[in-house]
Amino acid sequence: MDGLLATLDLTGQEFLILTVIVIVAGIVRGFSGFALSAVVMASAVIILPPVQIIPICWWLEMTASVLMAKGGWQEADRGIVMGLVIGSTIGVPFGLLLTTSVSVEASQLIALTVIIALALTQLAKIRLAFLATKPGLYGSGFAAGVVTGLASVGGMVIAIYVLSQDAPAAKMRAALVLFLFVSSLTSLIMLLWFGVMNSTAAARGLSLALPTTLGVFLGQRLFTPRFAPYYRPACLSLLCALAGAALVRTQFA
């Protein structure tokens, strides 16, 4: 165990806390289809700076996406997914450039503020009509890429884009899941290019993949269709509370 902790560059307490965080985040992803990285970032930012959490989230998102992508390619609108992925691929470097250029305190403030703003936007069910256009498609993808580089929460931007569509909910949810999977592949190149994805980050992500898997399975098992309308508001409220508490602790402690 000591050898593992040395490889991860974490204390036993930090590793235990991170394990609990990713299980909870996996449960949220399992029954809501999004917000895994947002929950991890909002909670783990009190332990690690955002630039170290982002590559961990990459491994966790990839794990969850593999588990949830079954049938997604057939159900999702592939044209929409590819448009979002193209925009995201262009946007990720801009977010990473900012994250790696500012201080830890500033990056924490940016990441948590972005999470709270996106969660409140979704809670308010704000529908932006222009997102249903072609420029809105690529613009949403670009914005998702930027916030992925900032706080690994691109999925929340895509969720806002989904709200602007009139397509069936199942089809758009499949698009969200497939986007997270495909965009993770393109984001890896940028994470390696910026040196954010290193051996320590990979070891942390791999060690937390198993408890994340457990959380996703639990979330899927706990999903009850008749309570579906309440899952998203509950998750977003939890996210606001976590990010708000972390913001207070990191900025005013």
From TrEMBL:
Q: From the record, give the transmembrane residue ranges.
A: 15-32, 39-60, 80-98, 110-130, 142-163, 175-195, 201-218, 230-248
Please give, as recorded in its UniProt entry, the membrane topology of this protein.
Answer: Multi-pass membrane protein
Q: What is this protein called?
A: Probable membrane transporter protein
In the UniProt record, does the keyword Cytoplasm occur? no
| Record bears the keyword Membrane | yes
Q: What cellular component GO annotations does this protein have?
A: plasma membrane
Q: Where in the cell is it found?
A: Cell membrane
- Which superkingdom heads the taxonomic lineage of this protein's source? Bacteria
Q: Which family does it belong to?
A: Belongs to the 4-toluene sulfonate uptake permease (TSUP) (TC 2.A.102) family.
Q: Which UniProt keywords apply?
A: Cell membrane, Membrane, Transmembrane, Transmembrane helix, Transport
Q: Which organism is it from?
A: Yoonia rosea
